[in-house]
Protein 1
Amino acid sequence: MRGDKIYGLGATDCKGNLASAMEAIHSLVEEGVELDYSLVLAATADEESGSSLGLIPLLERSILKVDAAVVLDADDFEIVITQKGLMHLKVSIKGKKAHGAYPWLGVNAIDMAARIIVDLKDQKTNYTKNGYLREPTLNVGTIKGGDKVNVVSDWCEFELDFRFLPGTSHARILRNLKRTISRYTHNFKIDIQGIQDPYYISPKHPLVKNLVSAMHSAGVKSAISGSEGATVITFFKARNIPAVATGFGNEGSAHVADEYARISNLYKGAKALAKFLQDYKFSSTG
């Protein structure tokens, strides 16, 4: 610790949030507060890698059975009501080998991949605008291919990261990808690595309204926002469980050297969370 900062890997994402949650629950127990509902604290693993070893099996096997969820995976007390969907995939292109001195005798898979990527990047996407999120994005994360500098490459693989808005389906993106690749080659394969649907919950939903009220009571200025990245709220959506995300970390500190969280924010977060848990009524959801 140094001053108001506590340093360490995961301090902001998301050990600090977990500490605040534990402190909030501990304070309610100490004060003898009885909630109108059963409270579950789930400290799940594997969120950074898709949650296949964390939240997903807990929900699929009905080990975790809840009627609403607050996900602590955000910074600076923001209240996340919407987020982009994501689709990660790998495209494999096959060509034909030839001597590098006679490229016309082969089919260069790297050349085809390059043209496909440029085509995808140049496309204008139709989408429904969202006041909390930026436009859809496509990132080429990795690319590799070929065996030797003087050989026409007969293979190339590249990985794509699509981020898309509520109102757009991953199926539509996949259809367009296949159509685009087919303009250059029919000898290709697509391997889906991960899909998360986009998410939206109304700012008028009791989860959101009660969080805003609790933050205000704790002397915290919070903002309703959207998330460009993915949190686990979409896995609750798949089971028709309303969810919202918030958190008390420090923006820009996650996944970097000297990651830190502000101790004062973790304290305020615990205070706000305790207030929210104490005041929330499921009857208010209708």
Protein 2
Amino acid sequence: MPTHFNHQTPKYQVRSVKRALTLLRTFLAHDGELSAAELSKETDLDPSTVFRLLLTLEAQGFVEVNHTTGKYRPGVTVLELGSRFLRNNDIRTRSIAHLERLRDEFGETVHLTILDGSEVVYLEKLAGLYPIGFMSSRVGDRNPAHCTGVGKVLLAYLPEEELAARYPDGQLTRYTDQTITDLDQLRLELARVRKRGYAIDQEEHEPGVKCVAAPTFDHKGIAAALSVSGPVKRVDHHISNNDLIDKLQQAAAQISEQMGWGRGVDQLGEVEKPARPKMRAVRTR
């Protein structure tokens, strides 16, 4: 077997494993339990194949069956794997103290995310000190990248060919009246993000919610994004009166320093390379 190969190449994929993982991934799009028939329909797998795969996954703890309804849900082994991922994720470990400081200072919800395809995945969420009931993010969940602050920050540093590959038809799903739905318009927005060093989600994904996001870098380049989110009026107040953008960028710069930014960046391709984050002093109040 070669030392290096394209992990997307079907030649090296085991069909039975791929089918089992496809079943597990189906649960990502649903909050509730799913029956074997529903899983079969959503995955286009034969019912008998689904039945055998579910028995195997259940035996290994990856799914469990509700004996009252006969439906399936993710098992405890999935939770254990997710916990191990979070525990061993270096970005999350190095970021958590900065996230806590931002949450405590502004009282708003803070997030840490990474990019996967055309979606962001939430590695961490610290809920704000003032309860709000309309923010849908949860650790492990996904949201579209093109209409979230964290997503736009992460997309901004992709080479053009990678950006185009993630949106092959050039059309972007609308979530609110503010959502950018054209890829060329998104390119213009991403250029602005690179120039100023942060992104703003102005009710583009959820009505009433505003988000300010900043990128973090490691020794290879863009690594993750962190953000502060809350009701529009409160976030606007923090921006105008409490140096939110400066302090968010300061936190991102400190994380980037810890992750090795500026030492060996070599894969940003044709994308404009951002300046190494500066450790700026911030006014205190």
